[in-house]
């Protein structure tokens, strides 16, 4: 299941830009256009959802919405968006429970990086004592041990990090640049084809000998991992 983002934004152009851009990145996106609508939808979300929250909203401000969720004990990651750029506004947003604050206008790549950082932080908090599973592939995040059909798979630290990234959002397409940024901590390929080399290694260890191939190539875009039959 793709990771979900709830966008609460009343500006039609900004909302359309965010929804289209985030869907193109593989996220499942819901949209609310007022504060009360956003609060109702946030209350009905499941685990792993991120809230992309405008500050100025009709009916209920972003600050009030965020404060209400925190008072109810809901720990949804919140990235607040606002045209208000002074320090006091940012401090107020963070003090009332926002996890991050981004000033409009912003570069879309920076927004994606902040979303990924919040989701990664959320995964670390939620799942370090649990597992990731796609079909019969299991990654134990406590022991950092992978297995398929109950058979342990020996992986290097880099391969484990790569696999965790793919399994954290099954079905999401990751570009080579995004993989390099998350797994290698760089936007430049230290070798000309290091991502492709590691994909081949993972396929050899994870997919060889199995009828269902989990690691897929999306031509012109990158790679994804899911249990969908081609």
Question: What does this protein structure show overall?
Answer:
The chain is an alpha/beta fold. It is built from eight helices and eleven strands. The strands form three sheets. Strands 2-1-3-4-5 form a five-stranded parallel β-sheet, sandwiched between helices. It has a four-stranded antiparallel β-sheet with strand order 6-7-8-9, covered by helices on one side. α6 (157-168) packs across α7 (176-184). The radius of gyration is 19 Å and the shape is elongated. The mean pLDDT is 86.
- Please outline the major beta sheet: 5 strands, parallel
The percent of residues in helical segments reads 40-55%
Shape: elongated
Distance between the termini: 17 Å
Rg: 19 Å
Please provide the count of β strands. Answer: 11
H and E string = EHEHEHEHEHEEEEHHHEE
Number of helices: 8
Average of the residue pLDDT scores: 86
Task: Record the strand order, biggest sheet.
Answer: 2-1-3-4-5
Strand % is: 15-25%
Look at the helices and sheets and give the structural class: alpha/beta
Low-confidence stretches: none
């Amino acid at each position: 299941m793709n990771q979900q983002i709830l966008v609460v934004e009343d500006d039609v152009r900004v909302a359309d830009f965010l929804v289209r851009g985030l869907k193109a990145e593989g996220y499942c996106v819901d949209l609310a256009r007022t504060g009360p609508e956003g609060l109702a939808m946030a209350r009905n979300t499941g685990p792993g959802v991120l809230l992309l929250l405008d500050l100025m909203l009709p009916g209920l401000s972003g600050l009030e919405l965020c404060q209400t969720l925190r008072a109810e004990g809901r720990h949804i990651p919140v990235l607040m968006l606002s045209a208000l750029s002074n320090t006091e506004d940012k401090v107020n947003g963070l003090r009332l429970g926002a996890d991050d604050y981004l000033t409009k206008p912003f570069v879309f790549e920076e927004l994606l990086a902040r979303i990924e950082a919040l989701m990664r932080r959320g995964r670390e908090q939620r799942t370090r004592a649990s597992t990731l599973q796609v079909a019969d592939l299991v990654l134990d995040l406590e022991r950092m041990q992978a297995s398929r059909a109950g058979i342990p798979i020996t992986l290097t630290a880099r391969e484990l990090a790569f696999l965790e990234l793919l399994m954290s959002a099954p079905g999401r397409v990751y570009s080579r640049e995004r993989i390099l940024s998350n797994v290698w901590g760089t936007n430049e390929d230290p070798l000309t084809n290091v991502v492709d080399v590691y994909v081949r290694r993972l396929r050899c260890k994870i997919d060889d000998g199995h009828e269902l191939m989990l690691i897929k190539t999306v031509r012109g875009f990158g790679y994804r991992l899911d249990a969908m039959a081609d």
